[in-house]
Specification:
- This protein is of the alpha/beta class and 405 residues long.
- The chain has 2 domains: 10-169, Creatinase/prolidase N-terminal domain (Creatine Amidinohydrolase, Chain A, domain 1), CATH 3.40.350; 175-404, Creatine Amidinohydrolase (Alpha-Beta Complex).
- The chain has helices at 26-42, 53-60, 91-96, 114-124, 143-153, 163-170, 175-198, 206-217, 280-298, 307-319; strands at 10-13, 19-22, 47-50, 72-76, 83-86, 102-105, 131-134, 158-161, 229-232, 252-262, 265-275, 331-333, 362-371, 376-385, 393-394, 403-404.
- The protein is elongated, with a radius of gyration of 23 Å.
- It starts with 9 loop residues before the first strand and ends with a strand.
- Residues 179-388 form the Peptidase M24 domain.
- InterPro entries: Creatin/AminoP/Spt16_N, Creatinase/aminopeptidase-like, Creatinase_N, Pept_M24, Peptidase_M24B.
- This is Xaa-Pro dipeptidase.
Amino acid sequence: MTEMFVPKEYAAKTPGGRDVLLRFPPEEYAARLAATRKRMREEGLDALLVFAQESHYWLTGFDTAGFVFFQAGVITADESSTVILTRTPDKRQAEVASLYDEVRIWLNAEDANPALDLRAILEEKGLKGKKVGIEYASYGLTAFNGRTVDTALEGFCETADGSWIIRGLRLIKSSAELEHVRIAGKLADAAVSATIERVKPGIPDSALIGAAFDAMVTRGGDTPSGGPMVNAGAAALFGRDSGIAHYIEEQDQVLVELAASHCRYHVCIESTLTVGPVDPRQERQMGVARDAIEEIKANALPGRELGTLDDIHRRVLDKGGFAKARYAACGYALGCTFKPTWMDVPPMIYSGNPLVMQPGMVFFVHIMIPDTDTGLVAGIGQTFVIRETGEPEVFSDLPVELFRR
């Protein structure tokens, strides 16, 4: 029988007494809000304007695609009520599945300016002349909307970039969060295994995407925030989803990079599949990539700087003769993310990154070697969490090898 991973829901009440259903126990959210307010006070902020959908979700449970429009949360450094300003299609979700105390609506109209509605909320809360942080580094705040916010708040209050307040806190996962990450790892393994089983000459590469997606969502996973990426033939050397149609040939190569999601927490895997006879040069490429990722995992230890992992990536690939082929970074943080990407950045794993690795940080490391001289690719990637001691916990049981069909 196929193992299912349908998420549990937790009944809770907002501070104002509204009944809601959440993905985590209410005490988990209470701890997150307390930590956010503590960090805000440390930064001298009286309030934070939340625009990142990841922040809405992590802080209150609010889960919506409405962040593509103007949508802002207001969090004060004191204990006053939290407010979400959103549109009518998101009203019910905010009411029954988020801990925002107040749900305010702005209406579409030719002369609508929700930034002015936002300023009115700030004025109600006594924030005129105060210092307000803004989550500028977010897909939830376009440059256009950001300019309207700046214009509306000019002369009203002091503003500062508050992009790192919640993002920094989200870097270290709680034990409850890691349970979802572990499930996402099982779903990612199932998705990659499905592509391996499905690949054969004569089928379109899109069939592999369908197999991977089906393996994730039919077991209780979310729609992931990107991909799956399946690039075959010459396109296997691409670093992004190309959309180029390709029928699998008698001798071929397929690069698969996908993330599975459970309660929005993502685990990413990268694998290389071959069909037919394997070129010995590609086997050697994979050997170099495997050496790099294994050494990186052995050195992903608490107290060390994140950039040292990319130092290993560079050294091993350069020694193997692939200095020209390697990327300038070898991975990034993962967490609860929304479209358009599963990448929870910053931080990226690049040489010189001074971020100190701490227990609970989750990273995806991938070694990509697109050799344009031979037209062959070797790509492998795994997701892991930094532990208190010893090497990291890896969220995949698949072998690190070239998969052959």
